[in-house]
Amino acid sequence: MAAAVGLSLEDVAPLGGVGHGATLSIPPGETAVLAGREGAGKSRLVRVLMGSEPARGRVRVGDDEHDLSRGPLPPRSGLGAILDPPVLQSGLVCGENIRLGERAGPRDRRRRARDVVEVLEIEDRILGLFPHHVPLRGRQVVSLAQMLAAGKRAIVWDLARADLWADLERARAAYREVTWLVLVQSARAALLHGEHAGILERGWVSCYGRRAEVAERTAFVVALRAEGGAAG
Predict the structure, then answer these.
(1) If we measure between CA atoms, which residue out of 9, 51, 44 comes closest to residue 202?
(2) pLDDT in tens, 116-128
(3) How does strand 196-201 pair with strand 55-61?
(4) Domain range spanning residue 50?
(5) What's the CATH code of the domain at 36?
(6) Per residue in 36-95, pLDDT tens?
(7) Which of 34, 31, 32 is CA-nearest to residue 223?
(8) 3-state SS, residue 33
(9) What is the pTM of this model?
(10) How many domains does the chain have?
(11) Which of 23, 57, 92, 171 is 20 to 30 A (C-alpha) from 132?
């Protein structure tokens, strides 16, 4: 019997992209962290998955598989994304953005926006502000809450700040069925968080696998040395 899949990508890349596409597989409820320097293609990979530009490759979320060459994933698919900067409705306050996610999700997967807000410890004052009045960290947490309220089964997160790891841990602890693909700049962070780690280079995934299996591979050793011992 084939292993269960929470999220898998098979040769996912923009149309016309040269060389490899991103390929990986994450079991249900687990987390993969990909490290890529600025320009490695982190944000573009998220845009491709969300249908912002034509793409090729296959995406599987649970038992649902989609061929990106036939068009983007449908809005009510099980895959959600948090971009850097996050995409929120500017004409709605943050609390309304989160409730929008709840209303947009399939009925059998929706979560109550109020419960999600409590799990993520979002302050009441943030809920009443328009997104452009909220710092980047707060907007990313609001976007996270929107994806969770919509009942997304897998979430791709272009994580912009190290202090957002605590918010991710809250979400992981409360919603253990969600599968995560987190994109960061730090190779050290990729080895500290989650069960799987990899390197993103020019839009393709290299040196990917279980965290303990990849820690000594050349790509990670080189990346860690380049960081000069900085914390992830």
Answers:
(1) 44
(2) 999 999 999 999 9
(3) unpaired
(4) 7-87+153-226
(5) 3.40.50.300
(6) 988 888 998 999 998 888 999 999 999 999 999 999 999 899 999 999 889 999 999 999
(7) 34
(8) strand
(9) 0.92
(10) 1
(11) 171
